[in-house]
Amino acid sequence: MKVGLVADHRGYKLKEVLKLYLQEKGYEIIDLGTNNFERVDYPLLAESLCKKITEKEVDYGIALCGTGIGMSIACNKVNGIICGKISTIKEAKLCKEHNNCNVIAMSGKINKIKAKIMVTRFLKSKPIEEEPYITRNRQLKEIEERNSK
Questions:
Q1: What is the pTM of this model?
Q2: pLDDT of 108
């Protein structure tokens, strides 16, 4: 499985921790930056990750910034992306099970042990293929299609 990682300057340190952790677990990592603590703006970084997903070069994405909020907003601007901003281990699991998220956004300030558990739960979870989740996810796709014209 290919996992794309992206972070702004406030998520850089955690991105590096998660990159090594996921590589050790056997995931192929596509690191889309940033690669230092110099201030950068997150929107274009988020877009680069999402393009890799929509072009099927990456299976799932993890986006990190100071709060995770900005990255989640930017990711959700790209058609075909369902990004959940997560703060807990339970949210990491449920965003995939209930909403079929293909990207998660997190704060770069999350404890590294908790962050490792969160990304593992996200990547190992599967979408629930039963009602009401099927209907809700179809409705989300329909909203996206109506508003992309």
A1: 0.94
A2: 97
DSSP-derived letter for residue 86 is -
Is a pLDDT exceeding 90 seen at residue 148?
no
Q: What is the average pLDDT across 63-90?
A: 97
Distance CA 51, CA 137 (A): 21
Say whether 95 is catalytic.
Answer: no
Retrieve residue 100's tokens.
Answer: 């079929």
Residue 9 annotated in active site: no
Question: Which residue in the list 50, 65, 75, 101 is annotated as catalytic?
Answer: 65
Give the residue-averaged pLDDT of 98-111: 97
- Hey, what are 140's tokens? 């989300």
CB count in 10 Å sphere of residue 87: 14
Beta strands across the sheet bearing 28-31: 28-31, 2-7, 60-65, 103-107, 83-85
